[in-house]
Here is the input.
Amino acid sequence: MIGISDLKLTVMKNAFHALERHYLPKHTDGVDGRYGFVPYKIDDFIELLAEAWLLQPSGERKFLDVGAGIGTKVLLADVLFNSNGIEIDPFYVDMAHRLGVKVDEQNALEYQGYSDYDFIYFFVPIKDHELEQKLEYHIHSSMRPGSYVAPISAALNWDDFEDMEKQKGWYKKCQRNKS
Ligand SMILES: C[S@@+](CC[C@H](N)C(=O)[O-])C[C@H]1O[C@@H](n2cnc3c(N)ncnc32)[C@H](O)[C@@H]1O
Here is the structure.
């Protein structure tokens, strides 16, 4: 039989999923090689959040969703972290603001604030493979040592970076190369 904790989690996950699905049919197509708002699975996202919490159990812990859409992941992350999102599409940014979520209108390819964050999460914002690679190189070179990234459905193989160390669903940027 399902336990009360599992039941509570199921209620919350389904409520969030319903919220995201509600907005999905209205505006899903991205332009200029982008994806529209295609939300990542809530279960897997919550697991990432829990892992992040355990990886860095103290300190300020700043969290960034790159390509945050309507901001539902930022809303969830904000329960545990000091969280923000960046998003290129003003329609989604406006929606996020209506939901009371911190999402800034920014092009992730040009964004200069990655080094401010302890945890950087993205779920494949850009459809065009080369542009998505460019974004991921930009994030890698901008993030500071000691910070983490969760590259979901990434265009690059983050294991190939000499200075990135896999820790559960996250990669930690090391001070020096791994070997
Ligand atoms: C696949 S959705 C992910 C939504 C959310 N982060 C999640 O995990 O559920 C990708 C989002 O990235 C946004 N995006 C695409 N290109 C972008 C760019 N260059 N800068 C910022 N956001 C971008 C899209 O508009 C879309 O909302």
